[in-house]
Design brief:
This protein is α/β, with parallel strands linked by helices. Helices cover 42% and strands 20% of the residues. The protein has a 5-stranded parallel β-sheet, sandwiched between helices. Strands 6-7-8-9 form a 4-stranded antiparallel β-sheet, with helices on one face.
Length: 232
């Protein structure tokens, strides 16, 4: 059974950690964001199998994030979490494009059941976003494998996540800060030099001895992937 990737927006650090830990034990890969704007950016850049949005969070609220996701033609199943239980709040959630709604406090097994039900319904979509191809580079998002010209390339988990994020948005530069926030989250302090180390390692593994270089730098903006010659 393939590992499903989930995005969780929850500004309560303890609750987010608890949900993530329990979902990890169930075999899911969970990325946590603590504010709406960062969750929106992450959802628009990376492919997920299910998105869980708390409504009352800093930045953009869950309704706004959900609307932004749907306005960008992303059909990933969305579950809304909120402390409210009024019918109007639920209607607002569904109007913004949510697929399901769970009121706090809730039992974890109920959230798990909702996730599994939505994953069954969204199976066709999940299969559609499992591979990225640029030039002769192939990224298998399901098997977490990367190859170029048919040759398997061994990457660390962080390298794979960074490469996948860049490849999912060809031509779009990402700053070191954006990469750190998307890969490590906003609650972890990571030196920007760390990104340089990862990019250099990826270039050595992906581009070395290849006639077409894929990983580029746009000075003042960040790193991006393209199979066309640009700034270096």
């Amino acid at each position: 059974m393939p590992m499903h990737n989930l995005l969780l927006l929850e500004d309560d650090v303890n609750l987010a950690a608890d949900i993530k830990a329990q979902l990890d034990r169930e075999g899911f890969h969970v990325e946590v964001r603590y504010d709406g704007q960062m969750a929106e950016k992450t959802a628009l850049r990376q492919a997920f199998d299910c998105i869980i949005l708390d409504i009352n969070v800093p930045g953009k609220n869950g309704y706004e994030v959900c609307r932004a996701i749907r306005n960008n033609a992303i059909t990933t199943p969305v579950i809304m979490l909120t402390a409210f239980g009024e019918v109007e709040d639920k209607l607002d959630g569904f109007d913004s494009g949510a697929d399901d709604y769970l009121t706090k406090p809730f039992y974890f097994r109920e959230l798990l059941a909702r996730i599994k039900a939505l994953l069954k319904r969204g199976g066709a979509h999940s299969e559609a976003v499992k591979s990225i191809n640029i030039d002769n580079l192939n990224i298998d998002l399901d098997k977490k494998q990367v190859s170029r010209g048919g040759q398997l390339i061994r990457l660390t988990g962080r390298e794979f996540n960074i490469l996948s994020m860049l490849a999912a948005n060809p031509g779009q530069p990402f700053s070191k800060k954006e990469l750190i926030n998307a890969i490590w989250g906003t609650s972890v302090e990571v030196n920007t030099n760390t990104i340089e180390v990862f990019i250099n390692s990826l270039r050595n593994k992906i581009d070395k001895n290849q006639p077409v270089k894929l990983i580029h730098t746009r000075f003042g903006f960040g790193y991006y992937i393209s199979n066309e010659p640009h700034e270096a």
